[in-house]
Amino acid sequence: MTSLKTLPPTLREKKRYIAFKILYPEKLSANEVVQIVRSAVINYYGIWGCSKSNPWLISYNHPKGLLRVQRDEVDFVKAALITFSQYRDKPINIVVLGVSGSVKKSREKFLKEPHLEYYKVIRMRKRNKG
């Protein structure tokens, strides 16, 4: 049995990270934010555009979050988030704080939170569970 090899960096698709803030009267869960982002992109850009831009929620800590998208589709996703105006019959406003090429820079610059290394996050989650 052969193992799968990872793609070299030259063949990987380029990504950008969009930092955003949600203005909504209620606190939203991460699953609700995923649903909001997907429906916003589908309403604005269609199903094909949603699959092409591949929006992925990296982190969400009410009211701010981080979204990963394809480099070429950043403007479409930003426009989709800005034009989304209603969720559960209540007004919602999604403010794009900025776009960056790395998770670390977008967390430090736009979300004003320190970047934790991945292994430290996993260690903290294991401690909290056990």
Give your account of this protein's structure.
- By secondary structure, this protein is of the alpha+beta class.
- The chain has a single domain, classed as Alpha-Beta Plaits, CATH 3.30.70.3250.
- The protein has helices at residues 30-53, 74-83, 103-109, 118-129; strands at residues 15-23, 56-61, 64-70, 86-87, 90-91, 93-100.
- A four-stranded antiparallel β-sheet has the order 2-3-1-6, sandwiched between helices. A two-stranded antiparallel ribbon has the order 4-5.
- β4 and β5 (90-91) form a beta hairpin.
- The radius of gyration is 16 Å and the shape is globular.
Distance between the termini: 36 Å
The count of DSSP E runs of length 2 or more, i.e. the number of strands, is 6
- Mean pLDDT, to the nearest integer, reads 89
- Give the full name of the CATH homologous superfamily: Ribonuclease P, Pop5 subunit
How many DSSP helices? 4
How large is the share of residues in beta strands? 25-35%
Helical amount:
40-55%
* Rg result: 16 Å
Q: From the helix content, strand content and strand pairing, which structural class follows?
A: alpha+beta
EC number: 3.1.26.5
InterPro entries: Pop5/Rpp14/Rnp2-like, Rnp2-like_sf, Rnp2_archaea
Subcellular location: Cytoplasm
GO molecular function: ribonuclease P activity
